[in-house]
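Limitations

Structures in this collection are predictions, not experimental determinations, and the ligand pose is part of the prediction. Treat each record accordingly. The example that follows, with INI as the small molecule, is included so readers can see exactly what is and is not provided: the inputs are given verbatim, and the output is the predicted complex.
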Amino acid sequence: MAVFEGNFTTDPESLRIAIVIGRFNDMVTGKLLAGCQDCLQRHGVDTNPQGSQTDYFWVPGSFEIAMVARQVANSRRYNAVICLGAVIRGDTPHFDYVAAEAAKGIAAASFQTGIPVIFGILTTDTLQQALERAGIKSNLGWNYAMNALEMANLMRSMVGEE
Ligand code: INI
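Predicted complex:
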């Protein structure tokens, strides 16, 4: 018997990471991206878009993220896909539709492809709450990158690696 768990350090230069980012609320998503890149770089992953390890896919908003994440995961070119978005509640029910579809779609992308697809979509009541989670207090972009590294390494460590 064995214990399988991902670490954060194995062979980082052989990982390929895709990051799908929503432009909507880019004051927030740009900060999440910066945190994510900082974490990946400090764990030995080259995040230069001209390099061979990290590709970036910009989409209009969180609603579009899952579709692109699924396509990207399906290409089998990446060990993990990180989705970054920010859905901020307004005065209408729009928030609920966008947030729900993003969550469902990202989960489906992961299940359908067997590639880790990280749910890095902030869902907050206010812009202030979103900014606090994108760098003013902590930066969850950093955590999402850690989640991607852990899952990518877990999948590599499992029999029948994807
Ligand atoms: N997209 C977001 O990423 N965050 C939001 O808060 C948001 N709101 O509130 O409207 C949002 N809407 C755009 C949506 O994601 C799609 O891009 C758009 O509906 C076109 O399909």
